[in-house]
Amino acid sequence: MDALIELQDEFWKAAGETLYMVSITLLIGGAAGLLMGLVLYATRAGSLLPNKVIFVVLNVVINFFRPIPFIIFIAAVQPLSRMIIGTGIGINAVIFALSLAASFAIARIVEQNLVTVSPGVIEAARSMGAGPYRILRTIVIPEALGPLILGYTFIFVAIVDMSAVAGLIGGGGLGYFAQLYGYRQFEPVVTWAAVLLIVVFVQIAQFVGNRLARVALRR
Questions:
Q1: Distance, CA of 88 to CA of 49 (rounded, Å)
Q2: Contact (Cβ atoms closer than 8 angstroms) between residue 154 and residue 208
Q3: How big is the CA angle at 163 (ends 157 and 166), to the nearest 5 degrees?
Q4: Residues in contact with 176: Cβ distance below 8 Å, sequence separation at least 6, in sequence order
Q5: What is the pLDDT of residues 99-143, one digit of tens each?
Q6: What secondary structure letter does DSSP report for 185?
Q7: Mutual orientation of helices 8-43 and 145-166 as an angle, nearest 10°?
Q8: Which of 153, 144, 154 is nearest to 209 (CA)?
Q9: Which helix (H) or strand (E) holds 116?
């Protein structure tokens, strides 16, 4: 406990770094994943804008990158990170890798939730003269909003988990704090303090996500 008290400044700094990494990743990866998911949904056979070439290429790319364990993925994209943001280590490099990894996972979640929208609703909108883009914006996304919110909540939890893994390579945040000051210094109290705060973050996110999804589903 004495060690944790001495490290409280570092502890709260690490907590802030985790929230920063997760928030920026969810913003960037969430937007990119939503776009890819919409493209996957719209270009699949029988959908609003069927295009076999675009669908197959994007589907293969997502299927290729999505299963890669993050600890391997973050090392594999280091050269690309250095090329684009100028560094392969540190918080910004971690955010770059997190955003890429999250975008592929989010794309698949978005597509899976959009395909659950009733075809009858879409056909009704078509019969009234609505175009593909208008249907996507005013019918498909609103109809799938509740499940999408739950999907993004799940991704938030996964990003928190990945940010902790990034601590193993000096990525900052609570994972790095637990590993450097807890595991290496044989201070289980320090490690468990980081674990418990991560659990608190996840519980808050899950509670908020569930509430928002419930509101969306009641619309």
A1: 38
A2: no
A3: 150
A4: 14, 166, 167, 168, 170
A5: 999 999 999 999 999 998 888 888 888 888 778 888 888 889 888
A6: T
A7: 130
A8: 153
A9: none
